[in-house]
Design brief:
Low-confidence stretches: none
Number of helices: 6
Distance between the termini: 37 Å
Structural class: mainly alpha
Largest sheet: none
Amino acid sequence: MLATLRRAVAGNELLRFVLVGGVNTGVTFVLFLALCWVMPAPAAYTVTYVLGIGLAYALNSLFVFQTDMSVRTALRFPLVYLVQYLYGLAVISALTGWLHVPNSAAILVVIVTSIPLTFVLSRMALRAA
């Protein structure tokens, strides 16, 4: 079973991307909660968000897309999250403001639809040298 999982992960960038996203989410969630013990939540969120981008950069470079890390890609990679944020903001605004979709459904739409966008942008940011 473990060998089958390894083969599936080895040959599938999108699956590795989703797994890395899950790991990153788990790590930053725990870090956020820990930091909230020593600083206000907005500060903890900011620190966690920045560290999460750094972790995503490292994991996506080394594990998902198997590319070398460089200053150039490190500077380019945060733009992925800027685009993802603006996309999510636009979709949330349209769904909740214009179409009156409940917040809980709107955020799920953003999450699900942003995965392919973030995957493609991450690949472009890390592979275009």
